[in-house]
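Q: May I have one protein plus its fold?
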Amino acid sequence: MGTEIEVSVADGTKWRGIADIASGFFPDLRSQMWDYYWSIVSANTDEPPADKSLVVRSRDGFAIAVLPMIEQGGVFSYFGQPAEALFNCNCDAVQVDVAARALREHLLELAEQTGAIIKWFDAAPASGSQWLPNWQEKLLSAGARTAFVYRGAVDLGLREAGLKRSLRKSFKSLVNWGRREMEIAFHSGTSADFGVFEEFRLFHARIAGRVTRPRQSWDEMYKLAVENRGFLCTGLLDGEMVAATYVFHDTSSALYGTGVYERDLFEKPISHWPIYASIVKCMEMGLEHFDLGEVFLPADASEKEKSIGFFKKGFSQYTTSRCVWTLGQ
């Protein structure tokens, strides 16, 4: 296979099928969570989303890369988050590099033609006296901006002993309290009871004080749990649901999705044990990485967002950093 390639917009959501066929693209949460996110953003009927995912192919039709992406309200992204290219691991370094350059060129042309904002993850500019690659010079000359996203993570291969060592010191007694006082249960596969998920949905609406997202998104979470691509951990105190933690996962990685905890019991550490137990469950499932979400928020983030980030940092073993490139105003 040569390095002559072409970039095209995928036909609907067929990029997922293309990626599935090319072993090595997946498992990937961005594919599995597509319908979940789509159900949320499509609720905005004033500015409906459009699937603008890209496929990079060789001239003979071989899929080298896909870039899952939507356009909504003049912004190209992965449902408001930076888009990220997935590369076929059957390709060599030269083919991957050529595909990455082709995607950047396409995104630059797209920004120039549409005037839209485009956000995606890519390599960070070098620091110190190192020369910038030509593609970075070109993007910066076109007005591109860079920023960083910092996420807390757990290496699940270190097992529970490693998690205990890295846990924030003040969290250890709180986890132990939950282990003693709370009853937890996991719901996925054949144990994913729709009635429990309905209780979870209504619990979330009550704690939030309103319905924050469409019913279909909750149905998608239930569907993923039934298909063993996610699970719900419920925490009971005196027989009542006081905590619910939902985790998305594929066969190697997990993502902390949604957490709901009884506000009237915030003087009790009801959230620590369900999250800790969910991480341990992912270890037992043989997964490799657990993504807790953003832990160091930008200065313009709300105090609530910063507080949640600080809380998640208490479970993190390490922090990852990703560079976000943005074209357009």
DSSP finds eleven helices and 15 strands in the chain.
